[in-house]
Design goal:
rod-shaped; 26-stranded parallel β-sheet; 10 helices; 24-stranded parallel barrel; 21% helix; alpha/beta
């Protein structure tokens, strides 16, 4: 068999194909060609016409039999347009310069382990079987644009595990019935599935350990009826999910709609324009160098957690503004956000008593904004968080029933807390053991139940009078706690408002009295009436003056008789009264004279009042000295 001519048993139309190959021209007048003839033509590689480049360019033919080019080495280009294959072609282990199939109909195709030196294009084709590209290596780009692949039940539509593409991979408009498998594949530039549709089955795109040098595009109408699995993926550019629709099997108890665990994204995650997810988005332990943009995205997983982002690391912002909607818990526990968390205008719904937002342990490098129209149907839990700038709830709606927790912000720290919700929350707001620089609130929207035990702050805005702040302190559902009063008083003292500090500390003692047993309660009431717990010292002076005046008048009218032998000193009613009232002072009058009759009761009253006033005055003076 010579390369100077085709085999003698070839049909005339096959001989025309042989001539077209030698000239490198399109052959479109061959209605049918045997796969055996194509293999001979490609493997034997007839000498080209001088000045021409030999290549196969066939259009509109039916290819009968099985085209088997396994382990073949074909130097020239293979370009097939609008051809129909009776059996799946096999390119396994072969080496090809260019492999192009356009608008062809095939019952499947296999190119396992093949090497294509330049482009590999399977564009606009209809495959009624698996497109098997496992371990395929492509020197430039791989195109699957506009193709339709229908796999048998239980089989992958596109099996491209361990694929290696030196430039970009594009599958714009690809329609698959069955999953796409890209496990451990490498694409040096971008990977685009814009407008692609994956339907039928619980698995959509299976690409764990995928490596993409540029961006990954699952946008512009991309849809998947199964899980998008990007576990451990490495994306050198941005991940684009705009206008995509993802439906996960976890709505039925299976895998999430988007699984992005332990992945690395060097750019952004752009999912803000029209992303719709039915199922959960799992981004746990993922690192994003840029920002995560979810504005206007809709996550619908009412059976559980809509967004799982435990230990998510984001270099920029987590942007959930502009109409972001989540039905199901948004979980950001232990995340690290270098920029801001932005939830302005978002709507979060935690169903069946679950949290709407759970971000315990999160660290935010700038602002954490739950403001400007945020609506949370369910509690917001922010325990043990650190916010470098402002934590804001201005014009937010915290919608939970009375008696339940609306906001939990325990053991946290923020430079500023703005708590001015759209309306006073019916639920409990818990700020216990939190450290705030500036606390901004509005008396009109103070929560009906507020836990302030352990809360510390440097200043409050507005700086309301102490009496108005007392109702703010009295909202703890657990009852009296002394620390909030002491903290508010210390704040007033730092700002030179001692009168307001005394009002608050006096109120603290009165609230504390309700928690005491009755003997201690009586003593506390006595301190309140006499010296105002040391914060009203003029009361003791006035009472002493009253007792002194009354006693002096009584003893001037009914003087006592001398007591004992010897010559008594001259009786002085005023000095005698002072001797009775001041137990630590001895003027000698009380020892020299003794009252008789009813005046003995006056002496008892004055001595008792003196001891009580002296003791309470001493306690009050001690408190005055210690209150700074």
């Amino acid at each position: 068999m010579s390369q100077d001519g085709p085999p003698e048993d070839w049909e005339p139309h096959e001989r025309r194909l042989w001539e077209a190959y030698r000239h490198g021209e399109w052959c479109a007048d061959v209605p049918e060609v045997r796969a055996e003839a194509l293999r001979w033509l490609l493997v034997a590689a007839p000498r080209p016409v001088p000045g021409r480049l030999a290549r196969l360019r066939l259009r509109g033919a039916r290819i009968t039999g099985a085209l088997d080019l396994a382990e073949a080495a074909v130097q020239g280009a293979i370009r097939l347009e609008s051809c129909r294959f009776d059996e799946p072609p096999c390119f396994d282990g072969g080496q090809f310069g260019v492999l192009q199939l356009k608008d062809c109909a095939l019952p499947g195709l296999s190119a396992v382990g093949a090497r294509v030196g330049q482009e590999c294009e399977i564009v606009g084709c209809a495959l009624d079987g698996t497109l098997n590209l496992r371990s395929l290596s492509v020197g430039t780009h791989l195109l699957l644009d506009g193709s339709t692949v229908t796999a048998p039940e239980g089989r992958a539509a596109v099996d491209a595990q361990s694929l290696a593409v030196q430039e970009h991979l594009s599958a714009t408009g690809l329609v698959c019935t069955g999953p796409i498998r890209l496990k451990s594949s490498r694409v040096q530039d971008t990977l685009g599935l814009r407008g692609a549709r994956i339907q039928g089955g619980r698995a959509g795109l299976q690409a764990p350990e995928l490596t993409v040098g540029g961006g990954l595009y699952l946008d512009r109408g991309f849809s998947s009826d199964g899980t998008i699995n990007l576990y451990g993926a490495s994306i050198g550019g941005s991940l684009h999910l705009e206008d995509a629709t993802l439906t996960g099997a976890d709505a039925r108890g299976g895998e999430p709609a988007l699984q992005l665990l332990c992945a690395s994204v060097d750019g952004d995650i752009q999912a803000g324009a029209g992303l719709t997810v039915r199922g959960s988005v799992d981004m746990r332990d993922t690192s994003v160098r840029g920002s995560v943009v979810l504005g206007r995205a809709r996550l619908d997983h009412p059976a559980g957690t809509a967004l799982k982002a435990h230990r998510l690391h984001v270099g920029g912002d987590l942007d959930c503004r502009d109409g972001f909607v989540a039905r199901g818990t948004v979980d950001l526990c232990d995340a690290r956000i270098g920029g801001s968390v932005l939830l302005e205008g978002a709507e979060l719904t935690g169903l069946a008593g679950a949290a709407a937002l759970r971000a315990n342990g999160i660290e935010v490098g700038a602002e954490f904004n739950c403001c400007d129209g945020l609506t949370a149907h369910g509690r917001i839990s922010l325990s043990s968080i650190t916010v470098r700038a402002r934590l804001c709830f201005e014009n937010a709606l915290l919608d939970v029933p009375a008696g339940e927790r609306a906001l939990i912000c325990r053991r946290s720290a923020a430079a500023e807390l703005t708590l001015k919700p759209r309306q006073a929350p019916d639920g409990i707001v818990d700020l216990s053991h939190t450290r705030i620089g500036v606390l901004r609130d509005d008396a009109a929207t103070w929560p009906r139940a507020l836990v302030l035990e352990g809360l510390a702050y440097d200043s409050t805005k507005p700086a309301l009078p102490g009496r108005r702040r007392l109702t703010w302190l009295d909202r703890d559902p657990a009852g009296f706690a002394p620390q909030p009063y002491e903290q508010l008083a210390a704040n007033y003292q730092r700002h030179g408002r001692d009168a307001d500090a005394r009002v608050v500390l006096l109120a603290k003692q009165r609230r504390r009295r309700t928690t005491l047993a009755w003997p201690a309660r009586v003593w506390s009431l006595l301190q309140d009436l006499t010296v105002g717990y040391g914060y009203r010292p003029l009361r003791a002076v006035l009472l002493l003056a009253v007792f002194f005046t009354v006693g002096t008048a009584l003893f001037a009218t009914w003087p006592p008789v001398p007591d004992g032998d010897g010559v008594p000193p001259d009786f002085q009613p005023a000095v005698y009264t002072l001797d009775l009232l001041l137990p630590v002072v001895d003027f000698g009058q009380e020892r020299a004279f003794a009252a008789h009759g009813a005046m003995q009761w006056a002496v008892v009253v004055l001595v008792s009042a003196g001891w009580i006033l002296a003791t309470t005055a001493a306690a009050g003076a001690n408190r005055v000295l210690r209150r700074s």
